[in-house]
Amino acid sequence: MADDDSVDALLALLNSTPVTDGVVEDLMADPDHAADLARRFGGQGTTSEVRELARARDGLQEVARTGTVGDELDQILRDVAQEPSPLTPDGLHWHLAGPAATLPAARAIITWSELVTRRPGRLRPCGNPECRRFLVDRSKGNTARWCSMATCGNRMKARRHYSRQQARETT
């Protein structure tokens, strides 16, 4: 099962294209930020790892928004395999094998897959249509709607209130 650190890294990856003042930013254009993300998925932070991780991000964002899985995710996983490590008294452990450049992206895809398989419906886009961020709903009732209550939640509630007030004034 994907642990909290892996899920947090996945969210950081998915949320690396925020909207700031109406313009989509790509946080992975910052080499330090991108290398840090690659390291969070077990990489070294190389340019080729970052490039593959950006491809994985784009594909994972698409599937999280639309439910459509594109070919790029399968292409990243094409030469990757999970292999058992030698047995120890602690049991069986698995590790990824494949081209080094694709391993951080593969780990991101595996984390996404484990999350949507074991906690279906918990990963979703923010309910604010102007926001490009995602959230993992960790609430018991699975009712979270916004990436952040302090920003998107308050903004959406204020819009609904304003809309109701305008409707009352026109009637």
% residues in beta strands: 5-15%
Name the poorly predicted regions.
Answer: none
Total strands: 6
- Fraction of residues in H or I helices: 40-55%
Order of helices and strands: HEEHHHEEHEEH
User: If you average the pLDDT, what whole number results?
Assistant: 88
Largest sheet geometry: 2 strands, antiparallel
Cα-to-Cα separation, first versus last residue: 54 Å
Number of helices: 6
Look at the helices and sheets and give the structural class.
mainly alpha
Please explain how this structure is put together.
Helices cover 50% and strands 11% of the residues. The protein is built from six helices and six strands. Strands 1-2 form a two-stranded antiparallel sheet. Helix 2 crosses helix 3. The longest helix is centred in the C-terminal third of the chain and has 22 residues.
List the helices and strands and how they pair.
Elements: H1 4-14, E1 19-20, E2 23-24, H2 31-40, H3 47-66, H4 71-77, E3 81-84, E4 94-97, H5 103-118, E5 123-125, E6 134-136, H6 149-170
Antiparallel strand pairs: 1-2, 3-4, 5-6
Helix pairs in contact: 1-5, 2-3, 3-4, 3-5
Question: What is the compact description of this entry?
Answer:
This protein has 171 residues and is mostly helical. Helix content is 50%, strand content 11%.
Sum up the structure in keywords.
single chain, mainly alpha, 6 helices
